[in-house]
Amino acid sequence: MKHKLSVGNGIAVLFTTFVDYFGLGMSFILLPGAILSNNGLLAQTTSPTTRIFFMSTLMMLYPLGQLFGAQFIARLSDRFGKKKMLLTSLTGTLIGTIIAALAFVSKDFYLACAGRLVTGLFAANTAISDSYMAHMSTKQTKTRNLAISQAVFGFGWILGPRIAGLFTDQYSFWGTSTPLWLLIGLLTINIGIVALCLTEHINSHIAPTNMILRIKEILCTLTTNTTSSLFAVWALFIFGWSLYVQFMAGFLIKTHSYNTTQTGKAFALMGAIYMINQLISVRLVAKWLKPRNAIIFITPLTGMFLFYIAYLTSPHYLLIPLVGFATAIAFSRTNILAALSNSTPRHKQGETMGLTWSLQAFGLALAASPIGGMLFAWTPGGPLIAGGCLILASALFLFVVVPRSKAVSQ
Predict the structure, then answer these.
(1) Which residues of 350-367 are buried (b: 16+ CB within 10 A; e: fewer)?
(2) What is the pTM of this model?
């Protein structure tokens, strides 16, 4: 059977990825401000220690919900249709965002928690989009097509934090909830584009399974030779990446006295470099550098750039390591996903991508837990150092443990 990604399908899945990461990038600016500000979700008399606890709780709810929801909904997309389940996931995300926006208007912390949890439970949007992209690609074009998806991720990462800052401080038409109402508008447009442009795809030969058998199938996937080892590589890598995501802003503020605008610009710079590399470098290099080799040779650079950033004492020297880190992670992340997809049958692409996003959610939740907090309390660069070690370990694990199979090498 010939698989081809049409223009309409491409627009639908890429716009979904953009909106997903636009919202994620926005949350890294909105949530700390909503908790730490005296005019946010908590009473002005709330102590700093209590504020940090509530901030961690609010940040953990989304990835905890995603941990359970993403894999389940993505799996259902293999059986009932990717378009149908993507519309379900987007609708759930829209409802959760509306709840969060109302919480910001009423300054209700617990309602904000409910909104974050609902959004997390339905956070399978990118997982389904990536599985659709992977299914409609050959092994020769998969890395290049996933690179486009990752480039859109970078674009969302550029605009999300910047728009959140602008519409919170300078153009706050509806107060601090303004960015969320903008996101609600984008999600509504996203639902319309998917409904009109995306072609349905169902794996008709997948038989219905009960919950016990479903759990056994997941365990089988996670313990099957090459695939299980690649999931271990992804788990190590994504936990290291999660420590960077959760604590990079705090590191810049604490170590280099960055303000919110400067921190947003730093994230936007890395997002821009990431996007440019995905659109150009990763796609070009994928023609001759196979996923396994890319992971082994480039992923260690990602970890070493994190070490360099953590030990810098002057902000004047941050530009080079930030650019280097964004470039290296563009290659690493895409090639690990491509290797995982190549080792998985076509009819299980949704399940595989769902598991990768569940592991990412677990990593983000774990990074926001007291583990990350203790590393940050030890030294602001502690989470970056630990993240660099985990990313280095992912490449070493692949080199030592994962066999040079045809699926991984292609």
Answers:
(1) bbbbbbbbbbbbbbbbbb
(2) 0.71
